[in-house]
Structure formats: C-alpha cells, structure tokens
Amino acid sequence: MEPPGPPRPTIDQLRHVANHFPIIDNHAHNLILPTHAETIPFESITTEAQGRALRDTFKSLPHLRAAKQLRRLYECGEDADWEDILEQRIEWLRSNPQRLHQQCFEGVHALLVDDGLADPKKVYPFDSHDEYLQAPSKRIVRIETVAERLMERIVRDAKEDDLSKTKFLPDLWVDFTDDFEREIQEAIRDPKVAGFKTVICYRTGLDIEPDYEQAAKAVGHPFERYVKACIRKRSYRIERKPLNDYLVLRTLEILSDDLPHSDSLAKPLQLHTGLGDNDIKLSESNPAFLQQVIEAYPNVPFVLLHSAYPYTREAGYLATVYRHVYLDIGEVFPMVSRDGQEAILRQALELIPGSKLLYSSDGRWFPETFFLANIQFREVWLELLIEYIEKGDITVFQAIAMTKDILFNNSNVLYDLRYQAIFDETIQEAPKQLTYNTKPLAGSSFHLPSSPPIPPAGTTSQPVTTGPIDPRSGSPYEPPTFPPPPTAPKVYDNQVFDGFIKENPDVRFVYVQWIDYMATTQTRVVPIKEFTRMIREGDRIIVSQGDMSKPHNGKHTGFFNTTSQIYIEPDLRSLRRTHNKDPLPSATVLSYWRSESGDPSPSCPRASLETLINALQYTHATTLLVGFEIEVTFLSRSTTNPHSKDVQQPTFLPLTTLHASGAVSPEQWLKFPFLSEILIALDAMGIEIQQFHTESGPGQFKFILPPHPPLLAIDTLIQARQVIAQIAALRGYRATLHPKPFDNKGTVAHTHISLHPPDRDMEFFVGGVLAHLPAICAFSMTDAISYDRDARSGGAWVAWGTQNREVPLRRVKDGRWEIRCMDGLANVYFTLAATIGAGLLGLQSGVVEYRERDLDVGPSRLDDEGRARYGITRRMPRSVEEAMEALKVDGALREILDGELVDGYAGMKDAEQRMLGKMDEEERREWMIERY
Question: Where is the GS catalytic domain (predicted)?
C-alpha cells in the first residue's frame, strides 16, 4: 500500500494566500509631499476625471465603494460622509501618520516606482516607502522625463539669437542624443533601476513608427520646432510624434544592444496603454498598434500597463502570442467598479497564461491609493478563482500557484529582482477576542515596532470573521471581504511586550511613570502579573484628573476637574529594564494620558508634543534629532558646622569643592568609583553616554546623551536622570538639577536639535524659535532662580550666532542648533513642544529675511547702536513673571500649543510661585533641591 500523499490544499488555504501573500507592486508612483498635498484633490484617488468633471465622481460606484473601505481604514462610523472621512484622515495624518502608512502598505513586499510623474521637489524620493516594506524599492525610469530634463539643462543658457547660428541645432542634436543614450545606459547598469517606461500613449499615441531608420530620418524638423519652443517658451514637454517615436525606438535599440546571448532579455519597457486622463486619445491607446514594434524588438520585454482597459482583450492576445509581452493588471483597482474589475480579469484570463500577468496598484500621491488597490484586487481575484474552482475549471492548487505568480513570482522573475517571499502558509485560528484600535492612537517618530511581513490569518489588523454563506457559490466559506473592525480597542502592541518579557523573564514589577506639569515624575508600581493583564486586555490605570493640578504642597489649584478621570496608558516603546541596583527586579515605562474612550487627553504633555512632531513631519517632510546634556550637582548632607556645634550649616554641601570645567582634581578622582556606578548602570540599561566630565561649579558634573528622535530622546533623558539620582541616593548623596544650588556658577540643560533635511533651518530656528523665544522661556526656565544672572545661560538678549555660546540660540552647523536658555526644572515635553511649535510657525510664515543677524560676539559687549546693527532689540525675560507674560501675549504660540493647555500650565506655575514665595531663601533652596 502506497503511503498517503500530502493533503490537498483547501479553499481556506487559497483564501489565506489570496488575502496575505506578499505583493511585488510592479508599477507605482511617489507619494506627494505634504507641502503640495492640497494641489491634488483627494477624491481623485478613484477617477481620472479632472476639473469640473471631478465633481460628479462622488456618485460613481468606484468612489462609493472606496469611501466605505476608507471608513473602515480610518475607523469612522458607517454613516460618516465624505467630509467626515476627510476630517478623520487629517487627524490620522496629524496624530499617527506612521500607523496609517503601515496599514496602507500592509502585505506589500516591494515597489517598482515610476518616479518621473512629478517634479522631484513635490514628491518624496522613490525609496521613501521602504520603511513600510520588506525589500528595497526599485526605480522605473520614464524616458520622456529623462529627455525633457536633459533638454532643460542643455538649453538653459540658450537665447533666441542662437537659433540663427549654423551649427547650433546640429550640435544640440548631437549633445541631446549622446546625453540621452548615456543616461539610458547608466540606468541599465544601475541595480536600483528595474526597468523603463514610456508615456507615448499620452503624448502622440501608440501608433509608433516601427522602423528605427525611418524614425531617425523623420525627426529633424520636429526636433527643430521642439528646440524653438524650449528656448522661446521654456516649455520642455515632448509632444511631437516623430520625436516621441524616435525616443521610444532609440531606447529599444539601446536595450537590445550588448545582450550576452541571442535569447537574453533586456530590462523591461513598460508602456502606458488604455485608461488615462483626458489628455489621452482613447482611440490611439489600443495596444494592437504596437504589434509591429513588438515584433521588431524580440529581446525587450514589453509590459502593457493598466490592463489596457478598455482594450484588455487586444492586450491579452499580444501577451499570449509573444513570449516577451506581459499584461499588467493595474489602475482599474480602484478606478473601476467591482463588476468592471471582475470583467477585466475575466477578459485577461480568456487567453493569457497566469505566468504573463503582473499585479500593480498604480498607487500615487496618497498611501490610500495603495490600500484600496490591494484590498480590491485581492477581493475580486479570490471571488473569481473560487467560481472557477467550483465550476471545475481549475483546482485549488492551481489557483494558489496562479495567485502567487501574479502577486509576486512573475514580477520577481521578469525584473530579475531575486527577492524571497516571506510567508507563513499555516492558517492560525482566530483568537477568541480580537482587538482593534477604534480611535487613532498618538504615534511616534521613533522605534516603530516592526510588524510581521505577512501576518498570518487571524492576527492581522483586518481580522477574519465568520461571514454568511456566499449566495452565488453555495460555498460554506465566508466571502473574501474586509469586515468592519470589532469593537474591542487594540491599545498595546503585544509583540513589543512579548519580546521584552522574553529577554527579561525575571522582571516582577513595572514602574509606570508619567511627567506632570511641575516636571515631577509620577509613578505607580505594578506587579508584572497585573501589568500583563493590562496589556492583554487593553486596560489603563485610572487616576483623578484633579491630581494633575496639584503643586508640590498637594493643594488643588482648580485648573482640572477633580471629578474627572485620566487614563494612564504605558507607551511600550519606552519600556526599559531598570538597573541592577534597583531593589525590585523591575522595568520602567513612560506613559500617555488618555480619555475614557482612548483618545489623547488634550492636557497630556507627551501627546501634545507628539502631535507637533507629526505635524512637522507630515506638513513639512521634516524630522528632528534631539540631544540632551545633563548637568547635575552632587551634594552631601551636613547639618552642623564641624568646627562649632552652635552654628547651623546648610543641609546640603557640595560633594567636591575644587572644580574647573574638564579638569579632574584628586578630590574628584576619588569620586570616580561612585560615578562609574552610574555609568555602568546606564550602560546596562542600554542608555548610551557619549562622554561625561567635570563642570565649573562645586560638585558639578555633565553627562552628554547621544541624539535621538524627540520622544526617544526625552524618555532616555528622564530615565537617565532617575538612574543618576538613585545611584547617588544609595551612596547617601543628593543629585540635583537646581539651577543655582550655591552662590557660583549655575546649572543648565543645554539641548541640541538637528533638522533633517537641514535646508530650512533658518526659517525654523531664526524665523520661528528665536521669534518666540521669550515665550518659550516660560517652559524652559520656570522658577525665579532660573533668571539669576549667574544661573542663566545664553545671555540677556534675544540673539543667535554661529558657534556663539553667549547667545540663547547657538548655531552649531547647518541644520544643528543649540537651545541654551533651559535648565533642569523645565518640563521637557512642554519645552520641546513650544520649540517645535515656534519652528512650525517660522516655516509656515514663509519669511526668509530676518531682523536678527548672525552674531559673532557677546551681545552684552556691544552698545545699543552695535546691537541694533545686528537687529538685536529685544531682551530675554528677566524673571519668571516676564516669561509668563510673554507667553500670555504670544497668541500664535498659544494657539499652536492649545490655549487650554497653556492656561492650565500657567495657572499651576503661578500657584507654585506663590507657594514658594512664602519661604525664605534658604528654605526655598533646600525645598527645591529635595524635589529636583
């Protein structure tokens, strides 16, 4: 008896493959930069209509279907109209653009990007998508764009008089053709280029002259007219049939040259066919026109794009009878209705072998175009295959193989990508309770958890649910839909938590922490069993909102409702093991403040900062790195004068007394065993210190942290400060951030910020941060002692200078600046939020001429006239009251930070200052040292 063979694949396995197998998207375009997004109507994602014709798209089946799917993507109600959808989209892009992009590119392995559709200044680079993919993107080189940019460069300095010169046009033709050939040859050799594309269909139609020699002879006069238009009108668009024909044929000639064997294939040439906007002549977009050209170049693969709709059958014939012709099934998803998409696939399959079909999204401008195309193709393709299986035309095994080919294998082979599909063939049972985030959670610009490339069924963000029997097929399997999300909100990324516990199985407690308005770290110690339950069930810690409005004396200020609740939500990206001297085997994690529904609390410092980080990234395509310096003074406790029992000494004395910045005295050297404990503890926690050294004040040292994205930088700063204070406490010392613990040099907290890309740093820092610097001081220098002349760093005048340490805003180099008017009492979330908010205002203003000029001396060394020459006319605040007044009258900064948040902060600081004002100087000093 023969052993049984492997089990036959089932419809469930086909469904799993169709819904989750990775995609090589063989034709896509760049995403639009946020600064130009408003130039593209979002409703154009389902239509080629433009102008007034676009108004009617809202009543088309493709639009209505897409709107329903977008409601699910954005987690809107089923009754949300188009305006509601757009508002929710904007909120996602502001609060968590990374999550939106991750969902839109879910299941995409790699993209082949035609990056010639738009001006490079208006779109992201072709490989900017890669952080959401499993493999690097490749370029598709648009030959018309190559030619037009070459001509623009060649005739940039040409004038009308040049046209009358005898050799001008012949020489120009030689330069143009030589440069064009060189560009194409370089692209052929470039491993980042997968293929080429022509849009001749748009320009002059597909009825291309098939004979290269004839095309070369006919190009003379059209080229001359084209050059005249370039010089006279500065219009470089190539739209003259002989010239367009010549460029296509010249490209085919170059691609055909120097192939290693007679049967070798060159890099493919994609051709726009069929469907397009109203620029196209539909009657001339039929790929049947290409038959003679196809026959003339048998070693160049031709990829007929966009299903050639409505000429799918004609394209199907060509792809069937010529070994080097392929049909791309793209753009019709989501541009055509469900029935139309099904009809197109049926027509394609009438003749074409499964090995000659390629999938693409034709995604462009917006990530949602990729999302809609991918889910609609998977859905309609699966429905069609199930029908063919039930009719007995194909087996499940054949359907699975065909699906893998069209989604991945065919493109992988044709474009010689050599990618490896990462896919789990097993079908996992759906968990008893699936969680889904019903509201967009605030995102982050750092440490995005990596999602599995192709999530197994039952664990995707689009959970599998049991649906009704398909009435068309009678099959007991649920229809291949993307159902609405369940109601249980997905709060935490279990993958991040599970990975941490796997590496730290002995953790028994978690310090759940958050920073209040007074820059105090609030903590709840949670046993790991309860913390695990919180994560698994999406639970949060509930605290009274009134507790957030208490200064250190515990009295409510009334700025928050004492009967309302705040829900503390740990951000697992900040989860970190504590040092080995902690008495508890524990971890620490920083948290957001949420509402009961899970929305970011408007009063949350962390969420407020994150919103501005995302606004900067989304609106201006700009990211930040932030590096903090920790200046700390180590103190010992002493209550009596060693020489007299009758004279009371201050409670705190400096740990070391002989100090000079950067020097190491024997007294300081003796403290290195203690300092090394701090450094070793930080290193064990994964907190890197670039360097540490002595500072000028007694007992004063500096620890320099490396640059990180903003939230990660702040989390690292807070956790590092805690370690320093805790190790000091174990030795009986006090580590304080007090701005001026003694009558000598003060203690500050300089902050370095780098802008990427750096080209608009003047607008951000001088036009924005410097303009609002007095108001920012309300967050960065929060106590009366912060304004002591010796404690304050950065001088008394609103000024900036390159490598100038006597001004509050120091330019280090292009893109990198230092904020010098900040100390350790600041709420770092608020300070950085105010800085980014001011920078955003500078970018939005569009002003590029500034009153304040680059200053190379200390402003205090100049007289009024000298300062005026540099545009220096404003003083920095001289007291916390002046800083608060500057914040009060800075309407633009208040608005971008949220006025209610600013009012709550200002009210609490006022209450705190009144409380501290009742203390004498020594009592106030020691009170603050104990707490900061």
Answer: 605-932
Looking at residue 201, which CATH number applies to its domain? 3.20.20.140
* Type of residue numbered 854: D
Inter-residue contact 359 to 373 (CB < 8 Å): no
Q: Residue 654: is its pLDDT beyond 90? A: no
pLDDT given at position 729: 86
Judgement on whether residues 708 and 584 belong to the same structural domain of the protein = no
DSSP label at residue 355: G
Token duo for residue 265:
């294939």
Report how many domains make up the chain: 3
Q: Is the peptide bond before 268 cis (omega within 30 degrees of 0)?
A: no
Q: 506 with 403, same domain? A: no
Q: Is the pLDDT of residue 711 over 60?
A: yes
Q: Distance between CA 724 and CA 680 in Å, rounded?
A: 11
Domain-terminating residue out of 392, 414, 436: 414
Residue type, 927: W
- Token couple for 362: 């034709």
Domain that holds residue 507: 494-603
User: Are residues 321 and 173 both part of a single domain?
Assistant: yes
Report the amino acid identity of residue 713: A
Q: Which two tokens stand for residue 904?
A: 């709550």
For the ranges 132-141, 542-551, 908-917, the one whose mean pLDDT is highest:
132-141
CB count in 10 Å sphere of residue 424: 15
Q: Looking at this protein, which amino acid is placed at residue 722?
A: Q
198 and 288 inside one domain: yes
Q: So what's the pLDDT on residue 502?
A: 92
Enter the tokens of residue 780: 């960065």
DSSP per position, 60-116: SHHHHHHHHHHHHHHT--TT--HHHHHHHHHHHHHH-HHHHHHHHTTTEEEEEEETT
> Which are the contacts of 280, defined by CB distance < 8 A and separation ≥ 6?
201, 202
* β-bridge mates for residue 624, sequence order: 755
196 falls in which pLDDT band (50, 70, 90)?
Answer: very high
- Residue ranges of E strands in 611-690: 623-637, 640-641, 644-648, 652-654
Lowest pLDDT segment from 268-282, 453-467, 639-653: 453-467
The answer to the question of residue 140 being in a domain is yes
DSSP-assigned beta bridge partners for residue 521? 515
142-181 pLDDT tens trace? 999 998 898 888 888 888 887 888 888 888 888 888 899 9
Residue 636 lies in a domain: yes
Of 313, 462, 433, residue with least CA distance to 375 = 462
Would you give the DSSP letter of residue 135? S
Q: Cα(507)–Cα(501) distance, rounded to whole angstroms?
A: 8
DSSP three-state, residue 406: helix
Same domain, 384 and 243: yes
- The CATH number for 576's domain is 3.10.20.70
Whether 540 and 596 map to the same domain: the answer is yes
The pTM of the full predicted model, rounded to 2 decimals, is 0.60
Domain match, 643 and 539 both: no
Q: What share of the chain is helix, strand, coil (3-state, %, to 5)?
A: 45, 15, 40
pLDDT tens digit sequence for 426-441:
775 543 322 223 333 3
Q: Are 491 and 435 in contact (CB under 8 A)?
A: yes
Last residue of a domain, one of 603, 638, 666: 603
From 898, 782, 767, select the one nearest 831 (Cα to Cα): 782
* Preceding amide of 287 cis, omega within 30: no
Tell whether 483 is covered by a domain: no
Q: How many CB atoms lie within 10 A of CB 826?
A: 26
121 C-beta neighbours (distance < 10 Å), count: 8
User: With 0-12 CB in 10 A as exposed, 13-18 as middle and 19+ as buried, what is 186?
Assistant: exposed
User: For residue 446, is it within any domain?
Assistant: no
Residues found in the chain:
932
Q: pLDDT higher for 277 or 728?
A: 728
Please report, for residues 228, 616, 627, 797, 816, the alpha-carbon distance to residue 612 in angstroms, rounded to integers and kept in the order given.
49, 6, 18, 27, 19
